[in-house]
């Protein structure tokens, strides 16, 4: 089974406005909708749309939490979240204007996780996980979540022999690496922060990846419109150039990219196939206006447009 763990769930309030978002102006809204917020939640949605079962867990609270879980269930995801009474799942604001230059994302810190809720999640993972499982931790925990608790959760996954996939940032990413996940997926900014270097060219990324290879089986760094770059423990480095498309809303594209990677890990595919497929899935997400869907019928075409290159 594939499990996805979102420690800081969210409802995305998607606000579309006319024209260009401007300061000191009355920016009129065109449409406001609500969607599933990420990040591991989006991995489960991606898998469901690809016909692969997963169980989504993590913490939810209040009406917003229930609404998010219901939206996920409508998309075919089995939800087994820990519901924390008296708390409310946060709302993320995603603003899109008509300039096609990308969205503005405004997020809240999320509710404090109580000792009892944490215990319940630890017990859940400890009792459910088996060595053939894949477990995805994506997104940063809510503020105040202890690093040691994060490491404890990841360590439960490792102790069960399950494959651990991590998409995190900052100090949580740093700590996750000590647990030696199977795959780590930072974005280009998170990776630069981790290596504490300004990286610009694909070659810069390759050289920085060479220095950290072996800390996990695979590093995959997403590079936005440029695509992604990966390295395995032996130092084999691959660059996947993403298809050029007209983006509508890139929010969630990184999460869906991880969904594509996980789908191929599940199928025991090669790293080249993983990158090709994940690029297509992430690109398809960026073409949608909402934050939690892809056009499954377009994936073959998008995959054929991904350029895979070995960099020695
Ligand atoms: O990647 C997009 C997204 O998953 C949004 O749906 C959203 O709510 C947000 O990221 C949450 O990000 P955070 O890093 O605060 O967990």
TrEMBL record:
GO biological process, one term: lactose metabolic process
Residue span, Carbohydrate kinase PfkB domain: 10-286
Record's catalysed reaction(s): D-tagatofuranose 6-phosphate + ATP = D-tagatofuranose 1,6-bisphosphate + ADP + H(+)
Single GO molecular function: phosphofructokinase activity
Record-level GO cellular component terms: cytosol
Keyword Kinase among record annotations: yes
Pathway: Carbohydrate metabolism; D-tagatose 6-phosphate degradation; D-glyceraldehyde 3-phosphate and glycerone phosphate from D-tagatose 6-phosphate: step 1/2
One Pfam match: PfkB
Alphabetical list of SUPFAM superfamilies matching this protein: Ribokinase-like
InterPro entries (UniProt xref): PfkB_dom (IPR011611), Ribokinase-like (IPR029056), Tagatose/fructose_Pkinase (IPR017583)
UniProt cross-references to Gene3D superfamilies, sorted A to Z: 3.40.1190.20
Alphabetical keyword list: ATP-binding, Kinase, Lactose metabolism, Nucleotide-binding, Transferase
EC number: 2.7.1.144
Family in the record: Belongs to the carbohydrate kinase PfkB family. LacC subfamily. Belongs to the carbohydrate kinase pfkB family.
Name this polypeptide is given: Tagatose-6-phosphate kinase
Organism, scientific name: Irregularibacter muris
